[in-house]
Amino acid sequence: MSTHNLALVVGSYADTDSASEDYRSLRSGQDAGGYEIIGAVVLVRGRDGKVQVKEHGDKSVGHGAAWGAGAGVVVGLFAPPLLAATAVGAGIGAILGKIKKNKEEKQFGVDVDEYLAPGTSAVVAVADERWAARVEEALLRSDKRVSKPIDSDDFTRLRKAIEESADDVVEQLNA
What we know:
Keywords: Membrane, Transmembrane, Transmembrane helix. It comes from Microbacterium immunditiarum. Pfam families: DUF1269. InterPro entries: DUF1269_membrane. It is a single chain. With 175 residues, this protein is α+β, with helices and mostly antiparallel strands. The protein has one domain. It has 8 helices and 5 strands. It has helices spanning 16-31, 65-78, 80-84, 90-106, 112-115, 132-137, 152-164, 166-173; strands spanning 6-13, 37-45, 51-56, 120-128, 144-150. A hairpin with a 5-residue loop joins strand 2 and strand 3.
């Protein structure tokens, strides 16, 4: 699959059950051949502001290198500070700093407090830009949705940095 033109698709939810249902529908749509998703997660933000990854493509949520390489990239593109809070290693820090700077300069990405306010959930997906509208439409239960282009170079560099540091990232996430 080409990663030349990517989109970050986000749906915001008042409750986690609706987010999980849309996540499963999103995965079913991909399985049925309607579109392709590069990565997707369900994020839950507690009233205390703490964010957890509830669901992603790997069955062992929060365990193993697959989490670091898959969900970590999606979380990092959605909100670099969320990944930076748990990630270790200079490579990841440098890439996250560049992504944050790009978000500010290019006005891409979304406002975390708007789409993942305390006490809410979000489905965050990365897809080829040609599928963005279909992916966004699959988030039927969301209170609001948005699709924004993302820099494929940022995606590739962040994925590589996380893959190289996956064990450290997973160790920190599971601490």
